[in-house]
Structure formats: structure tokens, C-alpha cells
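User: Here's a structure from my thesis project, written as C-alpha cells. My advisor, Dr. K., wants to see whether a designed sequence matches the one we expressed. Can you design one independently, without my sequence as a hint?
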């Protein structure tokens, strides 16, 4: 029986949303005409009335049937832009930000537990925190749209400062209205499919415009909080140009391009910073004491200008600039934007540049109270060089283990070592691979002929070796192995790396050396369960044990998306928790630090939700100050679209890591054991329900493909990768991204909640469940994400998609099972969390979601109608464009839908 819900409070728009919404209305009237404005306003007000439950609103004409195809396209654009502007307004108000998610607050919490700053600093000395940006295709908006939105955010910041005009003297209100008008007239859809180079260029703007200035500023803040200068533990990573799993378009040229463009951006940033410092540091020897080290730099610079004869800091910086310019020419292959008139030797490594900058800083610190050397532009530049080097962002390589197996098999066969490697059992494979790794003799030969796949994979590892020579070893340090299921899967990668000299066998009893770490990605529920055994066996190999001890840590990647598609939300979440916990003693026995790489997506069904809460919810002892997390698609713009937002999210990630590493577990060992037993039971029930529906129900695959816009999503130009790994239509072979994205569009959001309702209902000890939901950080985080998904889903709207299913009898039965499952999940969650309605305890998120629901419903209704016409054979191109626009608009309104 459904629980009774208390009525939610009325929605009150924040002032920014009212202001931007009014300007958007003015733009629609001015550029779309009064008729379109009146139609849009009628549909909006009718939908708002229905959402508020006003009497008779359910029978009011929606206004949608009066729209022509041209009107439909314009209307959908208008609602999409409102959602985009509402997102901007909420970001400015910190609606999505976690309270007290900053390092200062984390230190206060730790001190309350008796954990002092010395412990924090000791942790940071061996920490590594890395957001890794990927090209997973869930960002439906064009970069041009995001750029206009960010310009509006900058202009709104000027209003916050009490300004009436821009720096160019333009009226602020008019400038904001102009940007909205530009948005209105900017094509929202991509006409051409993205290529890998487009993805490289897009992500580079975040590295160049956001991360380069933001990370040094964050470190300066943390130095003030900690009272000492911490090491550069927070860095950035990148998959774009190195992730080949299922993407045949990523090859050696793309890897070289990604690294080359990153190098160009990093050194160009340093050149601008050094140039600016040269203008600032005008100290004269007539007025300041200058140490010999700075004078030596000045004398060696080649800057003999008489006007700067008494200004050694400027001359020293001229020399540093000249050497940087030479480095740019050597690594980038062209002249820098502002060439130096001096000649200089290129810097061999970033550490040499840092040394010269530190010499300048120490000179400034040698007089007075040191104010000239602390912080400031020079301090930020030194921090940037430490953090970004000459490579900007560490690029991961990734490929599927099936590809490695085929490549190694072909190489062994061509070399005459083993005719049929694929036929060997695991024990024989491991023995053969170890024998090959014990020698530095290459297995391949440039005179041998290989298949296109093998030649491409060998070219990739060779390009990685060249990158190490050019940019230093920090440019590529991880090789991710998708579908890792055995020790041989890891050894195969080491063998491929050996072909390029990136694995070296030990000499005279010394340990082997691996310049790039082979990292297994455990994705399915079975993979997660097998992970501890595989890693124990891997560490048990003497040559691997030597490599790991030498490095001091080993990474394991755990995948949220495929484990969810495989076993459902709660089983995936619990399986990841259990695998992480089970891996910890394996690493402890091996005497090495564990570094978990969390493969999270934007949607809850792919590990989405608050990173701050998710990191804190990790099992104690599994973080240890080291964590990497993927960020992709729409999440990149949401978390790192502007400098202010990026600082907030990076600070939250860092503070959560400190708390997860040092704060004591909030429950007793006895409770932990009780709770784990209960979770096993809940997970088992949820898993059975989910598997029975998705994989055990006849016709479910067809139901999914006909109910949701999966076919239409596959045609969107939002990424360089295909939607499926193979040509199969099986759900097992579908990528997790379109699986989750499609359910979100139809407002079912099944991957984020299905199965939990049956688990709630079957679990008898409701008091224990409520205790777990209240006091256990793991379950609190999991249920908070599930609750958000339930609030964004709407089975009433989803029912409008049901006529798209060809077999109405079977489709109706499946849909009824889903509806019942949703109600069970809804009722069970309210009972466990002690609420009378969804999000009762999270009013900010509740208001945010309810604000946008009236703007999503008409989009769903239009999408269904357009899909009917499209699938019915109508070939008007406006129908297809309308569907794609509606997908764009719904995703924008839902925010974390992919």
C-alpha cells in the first residue's frame, strides 16, 4: 500500500532564475515573435498548474497540439534555454554544493576527533587526488552553447559586485540580454559527428582556462589553512586520446595530438606568466640587496639591455623566458606566440624550470619580511609547473583485454614462440608470459607482417615510449585494462609495454621496472567478486612484487556503469564497497599502498551523485589519501565549467578524501558486521528482482528499445564512439551510457532504483533498516542518490511512451511490473528514512527538481509524438531534428542524466 505523503511546500524561484527567465522571455518575443511567446507562455503556465495540482488543471488544454513543426522546434529550444539558465542560477546559489565541503571544515572535524594537522600533512605527503576527464558521450550541448552560458555567468558576477557596466562600458543588463539572444540564435545541435580531435580540443579548454589557474589558487588557499606549503597532491588526468576501448578512431596519431596540444597549452601559460612577472619585478640593485644566485641568473640570461642594467630580476626572467621559448619550439614544433629576442637552451625537464623560478623566489625572500616571495603570481607559477609539468594532464591508455589477447597471440605466433596462445589455459599463459617478461629481447620485429589491429596496438605503445622521452614519465603512467578477468590479462599489457622498452626485466637479481602501470578494470559483479583473488595472485609473482615495491603503490579501477547494468543499482553499489574492502588486506599483505580508480558517470545508474558523500562513504582503510575518479560528459561542464564552480568541486573532492582517509568509522565493529549482513540480504533480493526483469523477462529487450529513444540517441552527434561494442542488440553488449541515458529520457530511470523496492519489502527487520539509513555513511549516500532518481522519475509521463511498444499486451505487463517496483521503492525508502515525502530532508534539491518538472513534461509529450511520427515512416527532417532537440532539452533539465 502506498504511504501517505505530506504536501510539499510551494516552489519559490531564486531571484536569478526570475531575472534570467524574464530576459529569455523578452528575447523569445523579440526574435521569435509575439505568437511564439504567447504559445510558450500558455504551455508553461498550464504545465505549472498541473504540477501544482490546481483543480481542473489536468483537463486544461496543454497547448501542444496547436504547435506546428516549426513552432515545436522553437518551443523546445526555449524550454531548453530556460533549463540551462536555471542550472546557471542554481550553480551560482550553490544549490548543488555540499555544505562544509572544504579543507578548513575537514580539518576542524578531524581535530574534533583528536586528529591534528601533523596527521593531515603526513597523509598529504604521499597522497594523490586526480579527477580524470573522459570523452564518454553524455554531453548533448554544443561547446558554443556552454561558452555563451559561461559568459552570462561572468556578467552575473559583475552584477554581484554592484557593477552596472562591463569593463568595456556596456550596460550589464543589455550585455546579459545580448548573450541570451546569441544563445537563442545559436544552433544547439551538432550537424557533424564529433571526431577524436574535436574531443581533444574541447577538453583542452577546461585544462587551459580552468585547471591551470584554479589549482595554484587552491593550493595557495590550503597553504594558508595548513600553515605550511603542502606537496602537489591534486593533479588532473585525461582519457581523451588514450582511451581506445571500443573506439577504433583512437590510435597513435591521436595520442600524440592529445599530449602535444597539452604541452603547447602548458608552456604557453608559463610564458605568459613569466612575461607578466618580468613587468612586475622591477627591483633595482640600487634599492634592494640581490643574492648572488639571482645575479648569476641575470648575467647568464643574455639580456644586456642598458635600461635594465640595475634590474637583475627582470634580466633573470628574460633568460627564463628565452629558455621556455626554446622549450616551446623544441616540444611543440613552432614559434611561441611571443618569441624571445634572446637565445637560450631548452629546459630538459620541468624541474629545471622550477629550480630557476625558486631561485628568483628565494632572492625575493632574502630581504624584509619575505612578503614579495610568499604567494603571488610567482608562487602560483611555481605551483603550476610542479603540478602540470610540460605535459599538462596525465594521459591514461585504455584497451579491452580481448584485444590484448589477440595481439599477443599473433605476436607469439609470428615469432614462432607459441602457435595457439588462445588455446592455452590460464596457468600455461602465465608461465609463457612470465618467461617472455624475464628477457629484454623484443618479441616483435619491424620486418614481420602483422594484422592492422596488432600494428595499431604496437604503434600506440611505441608512441607512449616516445612521449616519455619527450615530455617525461608523468605524461602517461597508467594503462587501464577493460574486462580484466585474470592475471594473464595484466601480464599481456606488460608484454606489450616491453616491446617499446616501457617494461625492463631486472638485471643481476634486481627488480624489473615498469614505466607505465598495468591497471585492471573490474566491471561486472563477477569481476568485482574475483578482484581480490586476481590481485593476490598478481602480487604473488616475484617480478611483479618487485615492480610494485619499487613504485610504492598499485592502482585498481572499479567500474560503476557495467556493474550496475549487470546487477542493478544497490547490488552494484554494495559490490563495489565489498570489493574495495576485500582488496585492502591483499594490498597490505603485499606491502604496497592501494590506489582505487572509481569509474563513475553522471547518472546515479553510472555512479553519479555527490562525490563528497560518495568518497566519505568508502570503506575505512581503502582511500589512504589516494583516489582517482572519472568525470565525463555533462558532468565536466557542471563541475568545472567556471573557475568558481571548479574550485568548489575540487575542494569538496579533496576534503572528502581527507575525511575518508583519517576520520574514524562512524559505527562500531559490531554494527558494521550487522549492517554488512543486512546489506548482503538486501543486495541478494534486489539482484534477483533486477536480473529477473532485465535478463529473465521474455521480450524485455524489445520493450526497452521501443519504449525509450535508444534508437534516436544512437544517432546523436555527441561522441566519437559507437553506442554498442558490437553489432549485437543484446543488452549485455550495449554500452552503459545509452542504457542509462535512454531510461532517463523516458523518465523511468530504471537503472537507478529497480530492485531496491523488492529488497525493502522482503527485509523483515525494518528497525534495523532505519538504523542503517540513519547512521551508516555507505547506505545514507546510496539512498540519497536513489531518492534523487525517484524524484526525477515520473511513471505517469513514462506511460505516454507505452504506445510506442509494438506488443501492447507484453509491454503493458512489463510496464506494470516497473510501476509496482517504483512504488515499492518509493514507500520503502520513505519508511527507512523517516520521511513523509521524497526529499523532505533535502529542501534545496527538492525545490530545484520541482522547479524544472513543469518544463520537462511538455518536452516528454512532444518527444513521444515526434517519435511516433518518425517511427511511423514520416521523413520530414524537422521531425528528426525535433526529437534530437527534445533529447537535448530533457537532458539539460535533468542535469545528471548520462
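Assistant: Designed independently from the structure alone:
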Amino acid at each position: 500500500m502506498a504511504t501517505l505523503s505530506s504536501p510539499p511546500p510551494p516552489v519559490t524561484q531564486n531571484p536569478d532564475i526570475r531575472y534570467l527567465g524574464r530576459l529569455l522571455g523578452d528575447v523569445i518575443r523579440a526574435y521569435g515573435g509575439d505568437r511564439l511567446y504567447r504559445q510558450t507562455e500558455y504551455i508553461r503556465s498550464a504545465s505549472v498548474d498541473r504540477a501544482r495540482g490546481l483543480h481542473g488543471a489536468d483537463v486544461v488544454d496543454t497547448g501542444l497540439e496547436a504547435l506546428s513543426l516549426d513552432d515545436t522546434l522553437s518551443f523546445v529550444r526555449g524550454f531548453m534555454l530556460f533549463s540551462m539558465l536555471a542550472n546557471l542560477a542554481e550553480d551560482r546559489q550553490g544549490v548543488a554544493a555540499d555544505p562544509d565541503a572544504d579543507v578548513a571544515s575537514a580539518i576542524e572535524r578531524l581535530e574534533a576527533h583528536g586528529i591534528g594537522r601533523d596527521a593531515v600533512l603526513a597523509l598529504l605527503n604521499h597522497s594523490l587526488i586526480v579527477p580524470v576527464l573522459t570523452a564518454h558521450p553524455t554531453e548533448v550541448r554544443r561547446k558554443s552553447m556552454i561558452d555563451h552560458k559561461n559568459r552570462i555567468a561572468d556578467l552575473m558576477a559583475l552584477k554581484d559586485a554592484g557593477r552596472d557596466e562591463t569593463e568595456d562600458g556596456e550596460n550589464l543588463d543589455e550585455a546579459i540580454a545580448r548573450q541570451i539572444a546569441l544563445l537563442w540564435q545559436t544552433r544547439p545541435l551538432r550537424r557533424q559527428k564529433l571526431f577524436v580531435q574535436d574531443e581533444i580540443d574541447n577538453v583542452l579548454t577546461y585544462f587551459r582556462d580552468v585547471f591551470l589557474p584554479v589549482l595554484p589558487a587552491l593550493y595557495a588557499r590550503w597553504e594558508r589553512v595548513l600553515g605550511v606549503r603542502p606537496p602537489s597532491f591534486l593533479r588532473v588526468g585525461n582519457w581523451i586520446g588514450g582511451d581506445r576501448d571500443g573506439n577504433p578512431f583512437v590510435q597513435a596519431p591521436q595520442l600524440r595530438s592529445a599530449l602535444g596540444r597539452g604541452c603547447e597549452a602548458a608552456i604557453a601559460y608559463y610564458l605568459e606568466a613569466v612575461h607578466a612577472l618580468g613587468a612586475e619585478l622591477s627591483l633595482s640593485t640600487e634599492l634592494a640587496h640581490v643574492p648572488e644566485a639571482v645575479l648569476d641568473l641575470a648575467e647568464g640570461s643574455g639580456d644586456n639591455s642598458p635600461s635594465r642594467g640595475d634590474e637583475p630580476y627582470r634580466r633573470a626572467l628574460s633568460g627564463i623566458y628565452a629558455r621556455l621559448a626554446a622549450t616551446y619550439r623544441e616540444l611543440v614544433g613552432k614559434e611561441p606566440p611571443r618569441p624571445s629576442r634572446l637565445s637560450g637552451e631548452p629546459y630538459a625537464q620541468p624541474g629545471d624550470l622550477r629550480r630557476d623560478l625558486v631561485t628568483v623566489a628565494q632572492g625575493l625572500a632574502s630581504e624584509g619580511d619575505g612578503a614579495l616571495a610568499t604567494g603571488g603570481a610567482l608562487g602560483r607559477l611555481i605551483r603550476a609547473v610542479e603540478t602540470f609539468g610540460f605535459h599538462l594532464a596525465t594521459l591514461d591508455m585504455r584497451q579491452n583485454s580481448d584485444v590484448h589477447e589477440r595481439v599477443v597471440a599473433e605476436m607469439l605466433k609470428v615469432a614462432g614462440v607459441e602457435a595457439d596462445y588462445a588455446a592455452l589455459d590460464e596457468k600455461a599463459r602465465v608461465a609463457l608470459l612470465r618467461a617472455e617478461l624475464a628477457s629484454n629481447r623484443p618479441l616483435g620485429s619491424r620486418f614481420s607482417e602483422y594484422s592492422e589491429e596488432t600494428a595499431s596496438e604496437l604503434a600506440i605503445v611505441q608512441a607512449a615510449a616516445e612521449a616519455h622521452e619527450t615530455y617525461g614519465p608523468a605524461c602517461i603512467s597508467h594503462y587501464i585494462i577493460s574486462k580484466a578477468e585474470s592475471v594473464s590479462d595484466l601480464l599481456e599489457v606488460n608484454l606489450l609495454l616491453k616491446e617499446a622498452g616501457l617494461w625492463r626485466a631486472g638485471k643481476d637479481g634486481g627488480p624489473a621496472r615498469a614505466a607505465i602501470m598495468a591497471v585492471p578494470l573490474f566491471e561486472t559483479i563477477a569481476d568485482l567478486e574475483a578482484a581480490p583473488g586476481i590481485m593476490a595472485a598478481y602480487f604473488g609473482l616475484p617480478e611483479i612484487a618487485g615492480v610494485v615495491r619499487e613504485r610504492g603503490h598499485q592502482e585498481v579501477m572499479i567500474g560503476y556503469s557495467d556493474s550496475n547494468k549487470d546487477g542493478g543499482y544497490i547490488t552494484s553499489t554494495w559490490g563495489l564497497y565489498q570489493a574495495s574492502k576485500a582488496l585492502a588486506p591483499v594490498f597490505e599483505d603485499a606491502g604496497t599502498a592501494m590506489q582505487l580508480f572509481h569509474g563513475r558517470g553522471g547518472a546515479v545508474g553510472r555512479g553519479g551523485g555527490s562525490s563528497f558523500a560518495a568518497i566519505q562513504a568508502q570503506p575505512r582503510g581503502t582511500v589512504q589519501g589516494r583516489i582517482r575518479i572519472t568525470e565525463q560528459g555533462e558532468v565536466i561542464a557542471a563541475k568545472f565549467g567556471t573557475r568558481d564552480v571548479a574550485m568548489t568541486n575540487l575542494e569538496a573532492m579533496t576534503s572528502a578524501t581527507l575525511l575518508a582517509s583519517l576520520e574514524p568509522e562512524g559505527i562500531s565493529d559490531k554494527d558494521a558486521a550487522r549492517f554488512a549482513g543486512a546489506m548482503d540480504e538486501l543486495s541478494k533480493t534486489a539482484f534477483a528482482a533486477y536480473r529477473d526483469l532485465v535478463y529473465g523477462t521474455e521480450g524485455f529487450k524489445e520493450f526497452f528499445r521501443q519504449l525509450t529513444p535508444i534508437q534516436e540517441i544512437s544517432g546523436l552527434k555527441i561522441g566519437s564512439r559507437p553506442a554498442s561494442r558490437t553489432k549485437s542488440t543484446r543488452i549485455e553488449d550495449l554500452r552503459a551510457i545509452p542504457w542509462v541515458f535512454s531510461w532517463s529520457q523516458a523518465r523511468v530511470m530504471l537503472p537507478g532504483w529497480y530492485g531496491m523496492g523488492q529488497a525493502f519489502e522482503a527485509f523483515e527487520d525494518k528497525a534495523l533498516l532505519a538504523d542503517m539509513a540513519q547512521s551508516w555513511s555507505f547506505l545514507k549516500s546510496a539512498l540519497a542518490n536513489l531518492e534523487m532518481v525517484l524524484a526525477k522519475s515520473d511513471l505517469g509521463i513514462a506511460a505516454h511512451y507505452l504506445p510506442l511498444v509494438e506488443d501492447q499486451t507484453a509491454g503493458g505487463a512489463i510496464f506494470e511490473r516497473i510501476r509496482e517496483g517504483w512504488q515499492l521503492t518509493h514507500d520503502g525508502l520513505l519508511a527507512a528514512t523517516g520521511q513523509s515525502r521524497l526529499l523532505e530532508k533535502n529542501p534545496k534539491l527538492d525545490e530545484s527538481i520541482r522547479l524544472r518538472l513543469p518544463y520537462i513534461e511538455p518536452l516528454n509529450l512532444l518527444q513521444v509524438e515526434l517519435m511516433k511520427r518518425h517511427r511511423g515512416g514520416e521523413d520530414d527532417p524537422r521531425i528528426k531534428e525535433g526529437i534530437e532537440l527534445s533529447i537535448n532539452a530533457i537532458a539539460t533539465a535533468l542535469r545528471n542524466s548520462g
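When you compare it with your expressed construct, this may help: DSSP finds 35 helices and eleven strands in the chain.
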